[in-house]
Amino acid sequence: QILFRGRLPFTLRHKHADYETLRPANQMSKIDYPKPDGKISFDKTSSVYLTGTNHTENQPVHLQLKDSNLPINYTLKEFDEPAQRYCPVGVYEIQRDKDNQNPKFVINSQNCIHCKTCDIKEPSQNITWVVPEGGGGPRYGNM
């Protein structure tokens, strides 16, 4: 910073797109995170509230799937559906019936805080993030 005053004569680049570096679930060990305590750590729903994000009712969904079968038929089997973990506020989830069968990919777009992580991390590049109607977004009031 001091030597070049923020003007480096080159740009550092990654060799691969972020989504290309995700490894299959069977090659990784499962991480068991502790439950949020409500003092230092919080659940994902509380985190949505803290962003001040507001969406109008009946707004068109701004998170679209190119292929609605891909999350269950490919990314769930291959990667244990990473969207349910990389999304910081739990927009994506896998719901199952009472017998823990018949998985269904659910998008809770009303919780989206417009971070675009899904656009960057989705291994199949199946999720398209478009600008939401109405210009809503995070309003971090206490920052």
TrEMBL record:
| Keywords of this entry | 4Fe-4S, Electron transport, FAD, Flavoprotein, Iron, Iron-sulfur, Metal-binding, Oxidoreductase, Transport, Ubiquinone
Q: Which GO terms describe its molecular function?
A: 4 iron, 4 sulfur cluster binding; electron-transferring-flavoprotein dehydrogenase activity; metal ion binding
Q: What is this protein called?
A: electron-transferring-flavoprotein dehydrogenase
Obligatory cofactor(s)? FAD; [4Fe-4S] cluster
Query: Which EC class is this protein assigned?
Result: oxidoreductase
Q: What does this protein do?
A: Accepts electrons from ETF and reduces ubiquinone.
- Per UniProt, residues of the 4Fe-4S ferredoxin-type domain are 103-132
Reactions the enzyme catalyzes: a ubiquinone + reduced [electron-transfer flavoprotein] = a ubiquinol + oxidized [electron-transfer flavoprotein] + H(+)
